[in-house]
Amino acid sequence: MKHNGNPLRWLAAAALLAALAIPGLRAQMTEHISDQMDGRTAFHMLKSLVGDWTGTAGEEKMPATVTYRISSNGHVVTEVLFPGTEHEMMTLYYLNGTDLQATHYCSIGNRPQFKLDPLKSSIKELVFAFDGGTGFNPGKDSHIHDAKIDFIAKDKLDATWSFYSNGEKHNTKDFHLTRVAAAKSAG
Questions:
Q1: Rounded CA gap, 76 and 14, in Å?
Q2: Radius of gyration of the chain from Cα atoms?
Q3: Cβ of 100: how many Cβ atoms within 10 Å?
Q4: 107-144 pLDDT, tens per residue?
Q5: How far apart are CA 157 and CA 178, in angstroms?
Q6: How many CB atoms lie within 10 A of CB 123?
Q7: pTM of the full predicted structure?
Q8: Terminal alpha carbon distance of the chain
Q9: Burial 41-66, CB ≥16 within 10 A → b, else e
């Protein structure tokens, strides 16, 4: 049997197939790939949250409602915290090139911005670092400084928002949420 093409290419392909057939090596390769997080993957993870969620927030376990929807022809994931209350807040998640960014429209009147930290994020947890904002001085004014979303199960998630004041971490607000209704996406 005659092979067309470079014999080294055939040898490399055979070696790769053999490596994939070895369970331990295949697991290491898959684990390494799954540890990689990028903005586009994270954005699609956020899109999977579309719907209404309920649960508790903070140590006092106050009732919490959160709604996720896709808007702007699929270019934005909108998160509304405490919809219809005086504490209603909105966070818009969007891609800026390959970076996943977010702007939080806080009930205290400022707009902190965040950027996905791909080195701290994983397929199970998205970590957002502070990336500036408007309407406040981060060295002295109160503001949300960073956030984390943990994908617990298909219809369960935890989210943590860190609140800073005078340039230091003041407290965190933990949300423990369960999806109550999936919504149809708008884009």
A1: 44
A2: 21
A3: 28
A4: 999 999 999 999 999 999 999 999 999 999 999 999 99
A5: 7
A6: 14
A7: 0.78
A8: 52
A9: ebbebbbebbbbbebebeeeeeebbb
